[in-house]
């Protein structure tokens, strides 16, 4: 049996990791612009927008990365986390038409699809033996209501009781509430009772309604996104939170987005991981997007780690940024690279070229190449196992026949 390891404390109230951080920060001579920020971090004082702008404008990317890496190491040492999961996108039919989305199809499109519960289970059967999480998000189907997903999650839980179900973004929850004529809190409670484990957190985009009106008009508002996640936390469903950057937003709007998430988590403590990912332009409809470079992606991941002192984990979402940048990001504040995935549609239709054939051994190699120790986690970051590669039995060499 593989040994179980417990990561260092996860939340800001634990003095032990703050003491480690204070020591780490004192060991480095920081530049004049970074020193005041390092002092705030050592005292666990939340950074403000001015601090965030100073980090975005700081000429030395490596110093920003080093600061974020110090925070990451104080929390988790050299551990980096992953899980074994599969993405099944249950439908691409959607009543909305967000300008950045390459996945959505109208119900009349030739390539529109909607998986029946039996089809979903049959697809999951191809992966269930090798995973511990099924991750499902999709379009806003014009006919499905909460009862459809209750039945789906119940069937998954009954067929594969050891699998956790991470599913449905805030706008999907809102859509189900509207279709079912019930409050969003009731949707969340009913789906939790049917087997839902956690909420993935997608669809946050940028929590600024001016930006949302242009890139995702008709989706939930900024306040609705936050309210639905608040309700999820209150009914016992932890969630991730996300940020899509590199569309039309300003740097200040990215920082305000992070602060809004941080302020909610001060109340609920329900956000377990923040996932910043850049807009992928291929085959989408947002020509005015300000596409993020590789260095900007790394800087934004680092700043996320520094701004979000009360959200434990920062994910380098390799399905979006690719394996090479994800590996680098583990030295820029990220401590998680998601999972084996094996099947995914939304990011790849938008232009992702990240491989879909990863197994645990390949992910562990990626983490080791970044100078970290691979740790397999569960969906809710409550169980951790130090990953050790399977032992390969030596081949038996038969003696050569002699005459």
How would you portray this structure in words?
The structure is a single chain. The protein is of the alpha/beta class. It is built from 15 helices and 10 strands. The strands form 3 sheets. Strands 8-1-9-10 form a 4-stranded mixed β-sheet. The protein has a 3-stranded parallel β-sheet with strand order 2-3-4, with helices on one face. It has a 3-stranded parallel β-sheet with strand order 5-6-7. The chain is globular and about 60 Å long.
What distinguishing features does this structure have?
2 domains; 15 helices; three-stranded parallel beta sheet; 403 residues; TIM Barrel; single chain; 10 strands; alpha/beta; disordered N terminus; four-stranded mixed beta sheet; 11% strand
Q: Give the CATH class of the largest domain.
A: Alpha Beta
Question: How many discrete structural domains?
Answer: 2
- SS-derived structural category: alpha/beta
Q: Classify the oligomer.
A: single chain
Mean pLDDT, all residues: 87
The topology string of helices and strands comes to HHHHEEHEHEHHHHEHEHEHEHHEE
Q: Name the CATH homologous superfamily of the largest domain.
A: Aldolase class I
Named CATH architecture of the largest domain: Alpha-Beta Barrel
Strand content: 5-15%
Instruction: List how many beta strands DSSP finds.
Output: 10
| Helical segment count | 15
């Amino acid at each position: 049996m593989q040994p179980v390891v417990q990561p260092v404390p996860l939340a800001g109230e634990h003095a032990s990791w703050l003491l480690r951080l204070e020591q780490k920060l004192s060991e480095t001579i920081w530049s004049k612009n970074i020193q005041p920020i390092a002092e705030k971090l050592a005292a666990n004082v939340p950074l403000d927008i001015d601090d965030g702008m100073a980090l975005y404008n700081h000429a030395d990317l490596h110093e920003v990365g080093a600061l974020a890496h110090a925070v990451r190491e104080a929390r988790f040492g050299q551990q980096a986390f992953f899980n074994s999961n599969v993405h099944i996108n249950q439908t691409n039919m959607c009543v909305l038409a967000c300008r950045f989305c390459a996945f959505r199809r109208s119900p009349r499109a030739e390539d529109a699809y909607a998986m029946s519960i039996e089809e979903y289970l049959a697809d999951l059967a191809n992966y269930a033996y090798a995973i511990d999480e099924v991750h499902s998000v999709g379009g806003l189907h014009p006919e499905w209501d909460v009862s459809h997903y209750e039945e789906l999650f119940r069937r998954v839980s009954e067929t594969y009781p050891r699998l956790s179900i991470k599913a449905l973004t805030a706008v999907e929850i809102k859509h189900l509430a509207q279709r079912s004529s019930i409050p969003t809190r009731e949707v969340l409670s009913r789906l939790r009772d049917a087997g839902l484990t956690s909420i993935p957190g997608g669809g946050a985009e940028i929590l600024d309604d001016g930006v949302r009106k242009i890139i995702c008009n008709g989706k939930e508002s900024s306040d609705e996104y936050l309210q639905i996640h608040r309700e999820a936390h209150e009914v016992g469903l932890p969630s991730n939170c996300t940020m899509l950057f590199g569309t039309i937003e300003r740097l200040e709007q990215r920082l305000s987005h992070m602060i809004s998430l941080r302020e909610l988590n001060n109340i609920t403590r329900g956000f377990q991981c923040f996932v910043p990912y850049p807009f992928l332009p291929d085959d989408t409809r947002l020509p005015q997007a300000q596409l993020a470079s590789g260095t900007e992606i790394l800087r934004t991941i680092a700043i996320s780690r520094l701004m979000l002192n009360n959200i434990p984990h920062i994910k380098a979402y390799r399905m979006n940024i690719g394996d090479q940048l994800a590996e680098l990001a583990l030295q820029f504040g990220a401590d998680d690279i998601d999972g084996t995935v094996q099947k995914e549609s939304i990011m790849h239709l938008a232009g992702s070229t990240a491989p879909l054939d990863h197994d645990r051994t390949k992910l562990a190699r990626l983490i080791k190449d970044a100078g970290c120790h691979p740790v397999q986690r569960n969906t809710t970051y409550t169980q951790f196992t130090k990953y050790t590669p399977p032992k390969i039995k030596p081949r038996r060499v038969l003696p050569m026949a002699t005459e």
